[in-house]
Amino acid sequence: MKSTFFLLLLSLSVLGLTAQSGTSDWPSTILAFDVTTTGVQVTGSLAIERHFHPKPGFHTFIGGGIFAAKDGGLASDEIGPFLEAGFWTGKRNHHFEMRAGITAYDYSSPEFYPVGSIGYRWHNPEKPLIFRIFLGNVTGIGLGLVLGKK
Known about the structure:
By secondary structure, this protein is mainly beta. The chain has one helix at 2-18, and strands spanning 29-37, 42-51, 58-70, 78-91, 94-103, 113-123, 129-136, 139-148. An 8-stranded antiparallel beta barrel has the order 1-2-3-4-5-6-7-8.
């Protein structure tokens, strides 16, 4: 089961990276790092986010990556994959963002769990940096780096 989920994640990431992104001036591929909490647990995640139908004022995306979670100890308690899709909308540099996806708490787990969040995204199309703050079944902050356009 773990290899099936990993292959699905890899396939969707590759499809997202090769998808056409329209004529928008917004960046198409973003490397994102988030630090989140569920109250007692701290999680770090690394993901690739690909915009597959950006339109003026409304952008959709798909992303996937891995996370590592700790329960206050020095060693990671959980490492697992996740897939997300969502949208962000707004004017100029300030945007509302909504995400939903699934995750497995580790590669050996056959169970999937829903994840979701809403939040704020600062994203200037002229700059390579993105800042996010979000609430959901995980709450956190994130930074993103633009890897390339279209």
